[in-house]
Amino acid sequence: MRALTLCILLLLSLLGASRAAADDIVPSERVSSAVLVREGPSTDTAILGRLRPGDSARLVGEVSGWYRVELPDGTHGYVSKAWTLVIGGTPPGEALTGAAYKVHVIDVGTGLAIFVEGRDFALLYDAGSQDDLHDGDENRVVAYIEAVRPGLARIDHLILSHPHKDHLQLMPDVFRRFEVGHVWESGRVNKTDGYCHFLKAAMSEPGAQYHDAIAANATRSVTFTGSGCNGAVTVRESAMMDAAPVSLGVGARMRFLYRDPANHSDPNENSVVVRLDLGSRRILLAGDAEGGERKPPSEPPESGSVEAKLIACCAADLKSDVLIVGHHGSLTSSRRAFLDAVGASIYAVSSGPYPYRRVRLPDDEIVAELQERGEVLRTDKSDLFRTGDEMGSCEMRTRKIGPDADETPGGCDNIVITIGGSGAMTADYNPAVD
């Protein structure tokens, strides 16, 4: 029976239009009747169709335990990985080429966007910029994700660290391009057009579950009066963001170490700090968490700052292998006591040419401190490169992911941290999409 099935599958891979083509899904040898095609990645969702032995469907994406497929009539649905096989190609997760996980710090110019991929999940932490706000096909974050994970259809977890332009402005396009499973943020409202667009997109996403640190299974209304986005948004809260670990996929989970929805004077004080446990490695995403006013890293974190609160409540939980450095490498963050608790060996700094209070980040003192501790990679820094007979720097370079030569910052130094199945870890720049 097994040999006959394998022969049939081989023939299917060669027959063309009416049979399984490259990157198609077919029922496995275990199937005697049919595989159910469901509306969502759950057995609790409606049945849209059936894949019988000899049928095939086009693979368009994947989530934990499920393939997303397109049937011959154009219907999109989900089939269980346990009852199906991929024919003629590799599923999207195999694009990791031997790596168990990859963490991409996308060069968005001045801002932050972190794309994390495992074999059975995809996660995005922030997507904003101060100086490259093109949307649609020119959205820098969407273009990067599509380049490194072609065919990806779903972002399982989307996290907004806090409602500032340089962390959220590019997010609405993410909802338009990808299915989003879970949205996580503190719940701290910022009455800006950017946050208004983000919240409306999150509430309009079919099937998405929205989580904040305010309440569970409740409804609230937020009213905006901006010129570019206004009106009331009804926020429907799912399970509350808390300290309990959240499963991402096999061998991966995340923990929210800091979440605060209070109406602080500066939304930086609401930064959601997340630790990702990817296999045996820990990655700490600090957002714009601060240690106080601009001071040398040798100064202790100021009382009431996010860094001080984290050290007081859960210093042991901060221990990580990689730190995505807080507040773009500003002197407001990365106090020595905080860095001691983290103890990372790799530091990634996302910054660009836009000045914060007339200061261009990262600050030299922070970079020097980090370099004493481990390897430092920066999205605003590259080796010199040659164009014809001229040498240039990253700031001069215009060829980047998305539209080339658009003369806006960013796209020069995307950082990728690769974690192998054995836990081996490397960090480098990603020239393949520059």
TrEMBL record:
Q: Which PROSITE patterns match?
A: SH3B
For this protein, the record's InterPro entries field holds: ComA-like_MBL, Competence_DNA_uptake, Metallo-B-lactamas, RibonucZ/Hydroxyglut_hydro, SH3-like_bac-type
> What superkingdom heads the lineage?
Bacteria
Signal peptide feature range? 1-22
Annotated Pfam families: Lactamase_B, SH3_3
Q: Where is the SH3b domain?
A: 26-88
Which keywords does this Swiss-Prot/TrEMBL entry list? Signal
Q: What is this protein's record name? A: Competence protein ComEC
Q: What organism is the protein native to?
A: Sphingopyxis panaciterrulae
